[in-house]
Specification:
- By secondary structure, the chain is an alpha+beta fold.
- The chain has one domain.
- Helices cover about 20% and strands about 25% of the residues.
- The strands form two sheets. Strands 6-3-2-7-8 form a five-stranded antiparallel sheet. Strands 1-4-5 form a three-stranded antiparallel sheet.
- A hairpin with a 2-residue loop joins β2 and β3.
Amino acid sequence: MISQRSEVPEPKREPRGGELWDPHVSQKGPASNDAYVVVEEKDEGTVVLLVARWPKRDGLGRLVFPDEDPRLVCILETELEAILKRRRKNQRSVRIGDVFWVRGLFENETKLSGDPAAWGFFIDITRAAREAAKAALYGAAAPRVRETQVEELGLVEQRARPPEPPPQATSAGPSV
């Protein structure tokens, strides 16, 4: 097959300064051996979890995951619900796209290959992860806005200027 366009490689997104993404849901920040766990699929009582090392942020604030392939783990939906019941504030059912933070899961490979109930606490970070995804989408869909455009559109609160002092009489122009 003949291609009409030459392929342009996508520039590699480099994490900025090695800064781990922080969802700001815990006083203790994330560590590189923590896991980012996503509910990838649900079917007939089985849930497929995608498990990846904790992401970093790139220069635009988007999440960048390590190059290694994430792992897929199958678990019964009832077992996952039981695990989450201990920590979740709202007791809604698990949905595709829900995201959890599991501390220290990558410390030990046997821990990861074992029963998800033994992984530790699942911290629900779905809201923060969705906000990060929205920010990445908006950043990709919208052009960069110059500061003057922001001011023209009224997106920044205008600071009140200090009042100008009253005119003073000078030899060139007496005040009225």
